[in-house]
Amino acid sequence: MHVSTFEDCGPYYSPLREIHEVQDLKSLIFWVRESMEQKLQYIGVFDGEGACKGIWKLEVDVEYGEGECYDELYVVGCAYDLVRDPESWSFQNALRCLPTK
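^ that's the sequence the OP posted. Answer follows.
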């Protein structure tokens, strides 16, 4: 089993893709939590055969600034959405981004 992560680093840098081997529940929780604390865009959990069991996708809430900064967006909150339906567009898009073995 392994945890796979993806972060889009913008137009000037290549995306960050990582794979972390998982031996037990403790290491699974550690790598998922560590990835969430880093606010990585996609976090996927794959079983030993390479089948994806679920993907967490980062969702961000933004608001426009006030006063002189009215045309800028500011992040006011973020949360993860668990995507499990393999037929959904979100799942397929994330699966294309995540590195596999």
